[in-house]
Specification:
This protein is mainly α and 159 residues long. Helices cover 74% and strands 0% of the residues. The chain contains five helices and no strands.
Length: 159
Amino acid sequence: MYASRIDIPDHTRKAAIRLLQARLSDALDLDAQLKQAHWNVRGMGFFGLHQLFDAVHGEVEGFADTLAERIATLGGVADGRVQTTAVRTQLYEYALQTVAGEDHLRAIAAVLAQFGKSLRADIDAAAALPDADTADVLTEVSRATDKQLWFVEAHLSGA
């Protein structure tokens, strides 16, 4: 951690960085899973789902950037390496054999929900540090994650 004039104690900054790094690893995994769905979806509704997964991917890419920038703001080093993501992600592993649109939708909905749940737990943890700004960043990402989950789940209505 580098020295900063930010008026948050070092121990609070270090704890917030740990929370943010965990979610950054998940966000980067989610980003890759969305591209996996985007590239490999087949069947009825292909084009709409292909576009949906790309649009959600764009949002998730923004989440990763937001989390990484908060880590840097707190004096940490945002670790976005593939090796780190592979070891630290807490998301479900994406099944390589997933092909049908509905199967991709279910897989993406599951990881979006899992990511949102982890974010909400970390909001409370950041508030308890106390680091209201990190809690706010996590809240922003959580709210946007829930919206993306709604977009994906809307395609599963009645399925």
